[in-house]
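Notes from hallway chat w/ T.B., transcribed later so I don't forget. T.B. wanted the structure written out for a chain they're using in a teaching module, and asked if we could keep both sequence and structure tokens in one place. Agreed to drop them here.
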Amino acid sequence: MPRSRHCCGVRASTRSRSERSRDRFGGVRKRKVTPKDVAVFSRQLATMMSSGVPLVQAFEIVGRGHENKGMQDLILSVKSDVEAGGALADGLRKHPAHFNELYVNLVTAGEASGILEAILHKLATYLEKIEALKSKIKSALFYPTAVIVVAFIITAILMIFVIPQFEQLFAGFGADLPPLTRLVITISQYFQEYWWLIFGALIGSVVGILKAKKRSVAVAHFFDRMLLKLPVLGGIIEKASIARFSRTLATMFAAGTPLVEAMSSVAGACGNIIFHDATLKMRDEISTGSQLQSAMRDTGIFPNMVVQMVAIGEESGALDAMLGKVADWYEQEVDDAVDALTSLLEPIIMAVLGVIIGGLVIAMYLPIFKMGQVV
């Protein structure tokens, strides 16, 4: 019998090692939990509940079947709280990094009113649309940023490694170099001597600006205001902020959240500090008895069409439906604007790259052409 127990222990240990290896390399991998994971979880949980599956069992099924080990651990952690008799909202509230105030408040309202299933469906739809909107904004920013970075790296390589070879060649010409060639060689010498300072200053500036934006309200105000004033891109960011404002408020209002209480969560979801502060100002006006339409008009940042749609929604008692239509409209506007921006940027970026690289090539070959003419 002892031998049998020992064998079982060896097998258990082997299984444990194989499971760990599978989790690490071939099976469920632990990755960072993303908003997309939360959206999928909300949709799956709502679908399970619609099928009549009890809440704890639904958590077990969704958790065990998730491909992300990090999300699996999160779901099972909330499940254990619910299984112990706690409210779902209380379990979610323990993980603020993944379930924000808006999510927890809506789940609380759903549990209190007995419509948790419907609330989860609304949350899933909301998260899916918000993530799609974020993806569009990121794609609009990523393409030009990536091209600029690549162009800078290529230019730096030419300045540090290629131009010096031409400089050595030109040293024995015994004639004055063209002004453009001298300028490029001078810049190249600075790159060779201070490349570490140039790269460090650029990277440090980007990191410093991002940190300052997070820590300083004044810096965040400045940059968000400047972003809204940018040509083309500023319009996209403004439309995206209005879409997120409308989508969030429509979701919370449809779930039965009082308007004043909803505004705090809406402010955090706008994605731009200018709209965030305007929403909090609207909340204060609404709490004193003002209508939503007049509070929006007083901020001066919402287009007249949005204010009029909200006014119609308030008068007809269908504010959530009107806000949903506004969100749909501006989400489509963002899609169209991003597509137009991409089409516009492609030829501009190619032209800029052609001028930079072509200018460097011409600058290096001008002395050769000049020597050929002399000969």
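Follow-up for T.B.: The CA atoms of residues 165 and 314 lie 72 Å apart. Might be a good example for the class.
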